[in-house]
Hints:
Strand content: under 5%
Radius of gyration: 25 Å
Strand order of the largest sheet: 1-2
Shape: elongated
Number of strands: 2
Distance between the termini: 10 Å
Helix content: 55-70%
Largest sheet: 2 strands, antiparallel
Number of helices: 5
Structural class: mainly alpha
Number of domains: 1
Amino acid sequence: MDDSPPVGRSHLVGSKGMSNGLSAGAEEHQQRVGANWFFWVAGLSLITSMILLFGGNVNFVVGLAVTMIISLVAAAAEQNVDASTALIIKAIAFVACAGAAGVFAGFGYFARRGHIWAFVVGMLLYLLDGLIYLAMSDLLSVGFHAYVLFCLFQGCKAARTLNNPPAVIIEPVTAAEVEPM
């Protein structure tokens, strides 16, 4: 059986993979892995906040500096007030931390669906958060922030590739190119 295209029709010329040599499945995996870091940041930030608000002394290096600061300020403020006011302070701090974590979870939601803006805005905010750790001289957290930013960048790059697939070249087939039957 002849696999050549019929006379007068065009045939497609292109690679089987994406423009960077990876398959679409590999790109989708990379995008998802990158986007999942937003969920890790959000979740670990909330856990850190709960620990700090209830008197613990643990901070996850991947979590947000902003939520850590909110929790520490609330924990310090509750020392000088009565029990009911302390509970209100903790509740307000937790809502603020949940809001910040929710923003990052939202970035994860949209990044998983290939929205490049979610990766870019999320990376920018996470970079600014890392600068807070740098100002506090917490180099371990700065290092982990850099690693997570790299992973987010890889996910963003994959999303960009998936959103802009390589062009397919269409070449016309002439009668002279077709072998006689």
